[in-house]
Amino acid sequence: MPPSSTRGAPELIAWYRAHARDLPWRRPEYLAQYGAWGVLVSEFMLQQTPVARVIPHLQAWLARWPDPRALASATGAEVLQQWANLGYPRRALWLHRAATAIRDQHDGVTPRDVASLLALPGIGDYTARAVAVFAFGDRHPVVDTNTRRVIARAVHGRAQPDPPSRRDLDDMLALLPAAAEDAAVVNAATMELGATVCTARSPECDRCPLAPTCAWRAAGYPASEDRRRKQARYEGSDRQARGGVLRALRHADGHRLPADVVLAEWPDPGQRYRAIDSLITDGLVEASDGELRLPG
Asked: pLDDT (tens digit, 9 = 90+) per residue, 133-144?
């Protein structure tokens, strides 16, 4: 695709305005109430987690901690308790650390520029640019898994994207219109298209606004190697054991239990010990005097 191309942008904008899902973080009143902090929290929660699971957790989280100062004042145990079963609990502690950095380094105001956002704990290329674009309206390419799949098909004629690289940002940047407001819509529309129409397994090409110019469709939908990293099986995994340990501590009085009773019924003792050790290493669990507890 040639540099500075905006192929498909008008079609994406029109499609998005007609078909985008009504999600809380897209509503003007949400941004008016929570601002960039609300966008930052939603992006943390949406990492590797379906939208339907995120919405109730997000609403409860922001009702309790509506700004960075409020979250920074919480304990690690409170944060993990509120995160509940949302999954990948390290995100909760990273979000807590980001809130603390915003309080201490930015006077409690979520920063706008990408460099400052990237300097916050737990924030990478996607989240930094998503906040800058969707909270502040700045013009940057925003790339997630869905974006990469749409570009792989519509632009490069491949069924599946290559592993993530810096080229992804260049590809998305080439699609963006010059106007920042339109560029923000194209970013959101490309992600939405990948999530709802140009899906990994069952794309609905007849509904796609890019179908007339899609390189993959024009080539006859050739297969390509799926080089995405496969999600490990959850049942019986170390991740499931880690979740069991955290669940037991979240539900315990004072969020602490004797170490020998935590997940004592787990069928694989070696995996149980491995899960506990990894949680301690990650800072999600603390151990002393024969007890395990959520961090203070």
From this structure: 999 999 999 999
Name the DSSP class of 206.
Answer: G
Active site residue 225: no
- Under a CB-based contact definition with an 8 Å cutoff, are residues 51 and 227 in contact? no
Question: Which of 151, 145, 153 is closest to 186 using CA atoms?
Answer: 151
- Between CA 11 and CA 272 the distance in angstroms is 52
Q: Which of 132, 242, 240, 148 is nearest to 195 (CA)?
A: 148
Q: Find out whether 54 and 42 touch, Cβ atoms under 8 Å.
A: yes
pLDDT score for 96: 97
43, 78, 192, 286: the catalytic one is 43
Tokens 């260049």 appear where? 170
The whole-angstrom distance between residue 283's C-alpha and the CA centroid of its chain comes to: 21
Dihedral (Cα; 66, 67, 72, 78), 10-degree rounding: 10
Q: Give domain 1-231's CATH architecture.
A: Orthogonal Bundle (1.10)
Domain residue extents for the chain: 1-231, 238-293
**pTM for the full predicted model:** 0.82
CB 76, CB 100: distance < 8 Å: no
pLDDT digits (tens, 9 = 90+) for 219-265: 999 997 666 566 567 788 888 888 898 888 988 888 988 888 888 88
Question: pLDDT digit string (tens) for 90-103?
Answer: 999 999 999 999 99
H-only helix segments in the chain: 9-19, 28-46, 51-64, 68-72, 76-83, 90-105, 114-118, 125-134, 145-154, 167-175, 180-196, 215-218, 238-251, 269-281
Eight-state DSSP code of residue 272: H
